[in-house]
Each structure stands twice: as structure tokens, then as C-alpha cells.
Design brief:
alpha/beta; TIM Barrel; 8-stranded parallel β-sheet; 17 helices; 26 strands; globular; binds zinc ion
């Protein structure tokens, strides 16, 4: 038996907000892939004097491994031609080193390499149709360096809508539990509750929480309530993850607040909040409604959010919200894809660029920053760009710079189209600058806590030894885009900015219990309506053990 792998990280300024450590110089000890409180003298050391030590980054909402990502890759071949990625020169020859392509939706191996290069060691794909989960798991198998999982799309699926319509809420909960286990999901994701089903049945969309969905006696409100209750009753590590109705439309802040109020008192996560914080009215104009929404979030501790910041530059919009993509296709004139996933959900994809001279893009950029800068609880308002929807995850360092450096932010503000910024808190001058500890909260400690990942996002004994070490640099974007060292499960995978090792990541999934009485009913349903047999539907050979509730 070989000796346990040990490493002592010496002399770095540690930012571990989950354990109340804010820049204190102290050693971090690692043994066999985990943080330990002490090591024997003579253990190997890594000199981090003068550097900043944080837990590995945790991405709570990304689109990195799915059949939709694959459609997006096919839709933009020019991006791949423009960004070829040679295989990295790994020191550890036991792991494959693969070439790939970049762009807004990098190929699988490149996605893992680039996340690691930024110091991120965990990432979740936030929208996977259960029927396509097998594809996502295969992509995650080929996405090294990061532990990952998938959120399963529910709320536009025929079986669930039937249970809600029949008042069978316990059965709806059993179905959600069965589906999470069968498809290897980590959390329940709702996208435009009822709107995707309405679009597929020829209705344009649903707009209000009490609209009927596709002629049924089911409303978006009922979908939200039943699935939020299911997630909480099943004690899932992450509560229901919600993309509200009316994404991207002027005036949608009213829908967002109504959705939050509908779930008042229930744990729920509202994702890419920036896309849901618009004042104004369709056809009449836009404004920022960020202050009202963030005030609600602050005063309701059961609510958590990620921002979905828009960053100027190329993006790829990928969402199950097919009706919104149809609008985007019409307004942008760009190419697009629309996909039906039988009985479950839909998908739309439109490549896009956010331009600072475009008034709406400038407003979206400002609203995202307002949410960050007006937030009084960074633990519940965490960082995302909804990669690649608001911008690539590669833009996180530039976003961190905007949060930490007011002078850079103010300079940028002068360059954007000001037409819609009247009444915007950002244009009125927000002086707040995030501290390193607040950055550690919104990029690792906060997302890990919201995801219920007890062993991630902190550096206390027992935690996974996923650690990022940065050189200090007056240019914050440079500091965060080129970590000096990245450590995954106790192994140094990035040194001096070079990827050295690329171990496979672990799969994070749940398998909650359910009443077996649902099985014969599901079998009948599959035999009657599905092109996939019930026996073939569950994903076989899922890696790792499910996370305990
Ligand atoms: Zn998303």
C-alpha cells in the first residue's frame, strides 16, 4: 500500500468564509484528497507565501454537457474553426490529453481544461431533459478536472402535468424522485413553467401564473407549488431551481415577484435573475427593476438566486424556453434551432453577441451589476453568467474585476449606450467594491452551500481538497484568469498557469426514495405514449454513489 498523499500549503492568505477565515495567513493541510487539521513534520510543502488561497470554484448554473450544447456546437462551426485547442502537455500520462475546440461552447475535454484553468473544480449543467440524460452523463465522462452533475427539466412534462391536473401531488413527488434516480439528476429544474408545453401545443406561450397550460386545468402556479414542495419533501440537497415565466421581456419583474410570492415560505432558487428583473412594458420600453426584486430576495431568507450577468462579447443562448428563443430569432435575424423532446420539454438555440452600444444589452449588463452591488447577502446572490447565455464562463475574471474595482466599472459604464439607463442605480453611481472574501462567497462558498455540498466550497477538515491559489495582481482580471496553482482532490493539476494533470471528475447525483406503487403506472404510461421502452429509460451504469439527502 502506498503512503497517503500529503501536502502542506504554507504561508498563503486564506479566504475561507464558510469557516470565518478572511485573509488570515495559515497553513492548509491535505491528506488522501481531503483537508485535515494537521500533518506530521516533514510532509511535502507548497510555498504559497504572498499568495491568495481559496476553495476551488463552484459553478451553480452552467450549460456545459448536454445534447443542447451539442446542437449549439453544430450551429456555430465558425467558432470552432476560429479557436482550435491543441492537446495539453500533461505530466501524468495515465489520463488522456485531448485536443478540442473552444468558442462559446467548447468541446467536452476543453470545457474541463478551461474550467480548471480558471480554478473551478465543480460545475453543474442546469438544464437537461431526462430523456437526454444519458447524453449528458457521457459528456461529463469526457469533461475532466471538474466534479459535476445535472439538473433535470420538469414542469412541462406530460406525466407530471397529468398528475397535477388530477390533484395527485404525492404521485407527482414520487415521479420526481423516480426521475432523479433513473436519470442520475442532482436537482429539479423548472423552465418557463407550462410555457414550453403551451408552445409545443400551438399556444404562443403562457404569460401569467394563473394561465391555463395548453387547455388543461393546470397553471404555472400549480407547477411551481407542486415541484417546490416535492423538492423540499424529498430533502434534496438543492431546492427547486426556477427559470421564471416571461424571461427577457420588459415588465417581467412583476412575474418574477409573483413567482417568489407564490412560493413564500418554501425554499426555492431563482436562477439568472438578471433576465427576470425588467421594468417597463412590452412594446413600450424597458427599465431596471433590480432594486425591487433584490429587496424581496433580501427580506426572504428562503429565496436564493444566481445573477446571470451579461458580459459584452459573443454568447450562445441555449434554453429549454423555446418560445423565448423564437422571439430572439425573430428580433436578431440570426440562425436558430428549435427542438422538441417528446413528452418532456423543448429547446431553442440562437447565437448572439451582447454589444455595449446596444441599449438593451447595456441595460442588461447594468441590471446584473446592480443585483450584485445592491445585494446585502452574498451567500444568497451568487455569481453566474448562465454560461454561455450571458457570456462564457471564461468571462468570470472580468466580471470579478467589475465587482472589485469601481474605477474599471465606471470607465466601462462611460462606454455603454445610456439610452435605457435613466433611473438605473448603477448609472446613479454605486460605490461598493467587493472584497476578496465576498468574491470567495459568490464563487465558491455560497454556491456550495446553496447546492448542499457539505464537502465543497470550504477548507475545513473533511472538505474535498479542491483549492485554488492566486498570485496577487493589481489587475484583478489577470489575477483570477491565471491561478498559480489549482489542486483537485489533493493533486496539483495546474502549475504556473499550465494544466499538468487532468483527472476524471466525480458525478454528483441523488436517488431519493419513492413509493413503488408508481412503477406499474409509469410502465403503462411509457408503453402507451413513449418511443422509449420503460426498461430502457433509466441510465444504466451511472458512476459513483448518490449523495445522501
Ligand atoms: Zn441556464
Amino acid at each position: 500500500m502506498s503512503a497517503p498523499a500529503r501536502l502542506r500549503i504554507v504561508g498563503g492568505a486564506v479566504h475561507d468564509p464558510a469557516n470565518g477565515i478572511d485573509g488570515e495567513v495559515r497553513d492548509i493541510c491535505i491528506e488522501s484528497g481531503r483537508i485535515v487539521s494537521a500533518l506530521p513534520d516533514g510532509a511535502p510543502t507548497l510555498d504559497a507565501r504572498g499568495m491568495v488561497v481559496m476553495p476551488g470554484g463552484v459553478d451553480i448554473h452552467s450549460h456545459l454537457a448536454s445534447s443542447s450544447c451539442n446542437h449549439a456546437r453544430r450551429l456555430a462551426p465558425e467558432e470552432r474553426a476560429a479557436d482550435p485547442v491543441p492537446a495539453p502537455a500533461l505530466l501524468d500520462r495515465t489520463a488522456p490529453a485531448r485536443s478540442g475546440t473552444g468558442g462559446t461552447v467548447p468541446s467536452t475535454f476543453t470545457t474541463g481544461y478551461r474550467y480548471a484553468g480558471l480554478g473551478y473544480t465543480t460545475a453543474f449543467d442546469a438544464a437537461v431533459a431526462p430523456l437526454m440524460a444519458r447524453h449528458s452523463h457521457a459528456e461529463l465522462d469526457d469533461t475532466p478536472c471538474v466534479d459535476g452533475g445535472i439538473f433535470l427539466l420538469m414542469g412541462n412534462d406530460e406525466y407530471l402535468l397529468r398528475q397535477i391536473e388530477a390533484g395527485e401531488h404525492a404521485r407527482a413527488r414520487d415521479y420526481a424522485a423516480w426521475l432523479l434516480g433513473a436519470a442520475g439528476g442532482y436537482a429539479i429544474k423548472i423552465v418557463n413553467p407550462g410555457g414550453v408545453e403551451a408552445w409545443k401545443t400551438g399556444q404562443r406561450n403562457v404569460t401569467g401564473l394563473d394561465d391555463a397550460i395548453g387547455g388543461r386545468k393546470v397553471t404555472p402556479r400549480a407547477v411551481l407549488e407542486v415541484l417546490a414542495d416535492a423538492g423540499n419533501a424529498l430533502r434534496l440537497p438543492h431546492p427547486v431551481h426556477i427559470h421564471c415565466n416571461n424571461l427577457g421581456l420588459p415588465g417581467n419583474a412583476a412575474t418574477t415577484l409573483a413567482s417568489m410570492e407564490a412560493l413564500q415560505g418554501r425554499r426555492a432558487h431563482f436562477t439568472h435573475l438578471q433576465f427576470h428583473c425588467y421594468g417597463g412594458e412590452p412594446g413600450k420600453g424597458w427599465s431596471s427593476a433590480s432594486a425591487k426584486v433584490i429587496e424581496y430576495v433580501y427580506t426572504h431568507p428562503e429565496v436564493s438566486t444566481d445573477v446571470g450577468q451579461v458580459m459584452f462579447g459573443p454568447a450562445m443562448t441555449i434554453t429549454a424556453d423555446a418560445p423565448v428563443e423564437y422571439l430572439l430569432y425573430q428580433s436578431s435575424g440570426r440562425r436558430w434551432t428549435n427542438i422538441d423532446i417528446e413528452l418532456e420539454t423543448g429547446c431553442g438555440i440562437v447565437p448572439l453577441a451582447f454589444k455595449e452600444k446596444a441599449a438593451v444589452a447595456a441595460l442588461q449588463w447594468a441590471i446584473g451589476l446592480e443585483l450584485f452591488l445592491l445585494s446585502e447577502d452574498p451567500w444568497r446572490v451568487v455569481l453566474s453568467t448562465d454560461h454561455p447565455n450571458g457570456g462564457s464562463f471564461l468571462s468570470y475574471p472580468a466580471l470579478i474585476q467589475l465587482l472589485m474595482d469601481r474605477s474599471v466599472r465606471d470607465e466601462r459604464l462611460k462606454q455603454v449606450n445610456p439610452r435605457l439607463l435613466a433611473g438605473s442605480a448603477l448609472a446613479d453611481g454605486l460605490s461598493r467594491e467587493y472584497t476578496l472574501n465576498e468574491i470567495a462567497i459568490v464563487t465558491r462558498a455560497g454556491p456550495a452551500r446553496l447546492l448542499g455540498l457539505r464537502d465543497k466550497g470550504h477548507l475545513g477538515p473533511g472538505a474535498d481538497a479542491d483549492i485554488t491559489i492566486y498570485n496577487r495582481d493589481p489587475d484583478i482580471a489577470t489575477m483570477f484568469s491565471t491561478p498559480r496553482y489549482v489542486i483537485k482532490d489533493g493533486t496539483v493539476i495546474v502549475e504556473e498557469g499550465q494544466l499538468r494533470r487532468a483527472p476524471a471528475g466525480r458525478r454528483l447525483r441523488v436517488a431519493p426514495g419513492y413509493d413503488d406503487a408508481i412503477v406499474p403506472d409509469l410502465r403503462r404510461y411509457f408503453e402507451a405514449y413513449s418511443s422509449v421502452s420503460f426498461g430502457n429509460y433509466p441510465v444504466a451504469g451511472l458512476p459513483g454513489e448518490p449523495v445522501a439527502p
